[in-house]
């Protein structure tokens, strides 16, 4: 465990807290992509199958359960709970996620670490997480403006991935047998997707005013 | 390391 990874996990938890607060207190899922939340639920449910046989630490296992529970709760609330479910706009949030799931599944089958079923599913979840934010970014693009809390949510997610990149660099230089090409590649792609958002997020927050984040 | 195969990250 190193500080980058710890802060990365805390930032990931923060993103869940922000989103859960927004949809439960704000009673609205406007501006939140249910598609992205569904992809995250698939990512965590598939990646953490090893909960039952891989025990690395209590911290690890506890957060796996937390991430599965939170992502499932978010999907449930936006899909089924009133009044949030009425604030979700299927016309706007209509990114064809099958075009993300399909290629990731093929990639998981072809490029993985060990050719066992779990390794294929695990690799699938790594690739899927890299692109899971796309429906959300498309939704924000369509809306042009980003609601304040939503912008903090996406920023927290971006920070989590950026900190994980630093964690991999740190581990690469401090551990001798640390090699995770799949994770490094997918994580770099994923962090790249946030760069554009961060630029607009920074522009809008720079003035210190809470001007809404404007995407072109 | 063994079964974990480096999957000690979330």
Task: Describe it.
The complex is a heterodimer of chains A (216) and B (10). Chain A is mostly helical. Helices cover 70% and strands 2% of the residues of chain A. Chain A contains eight helices and two strands. In chain A, strands 1-2 form a two-stranded antiparallel sheet. In chain A, helix 1 runs parallel beside helix 3 (58-80) and helix 5 (117-131) packs parallel to helix 8 (181-206). In chain A, 36% of the residues are buried. By secondary structure, chain B is largely without helices or strands. In chain B, 0% of the residues lie in helices and 0% in strands. Chain B has no helices and no strands. Chain B is elongated, with a radius of gyration of 6 Å. The relative contact order of chain B is 0.36. The model of chain B has no long low-confidence stretch (mean pLDDT 69).
Radius of gyration of chain B: 6 Å
Gap between N and C termini of chain A? 39 Å
Strand order of the largest sheet of chain A: 1-2
Oligomer: heterodimer
Query: Gap between N and C termini of chain B, in Å?
Result: 16 Å
Quantity of strands of chain A, as a count: 2
- Tell me the fraction of residues in β-strands of chain B, as a range: under 5%
Poorly predicted runs of chain B are: none
Overall structural class of chain A, as computed from helix and strand content, comes to mainly alpha
**H and E order of chain A:** HHHHHHEHHE
Number of strands of chain B: 0
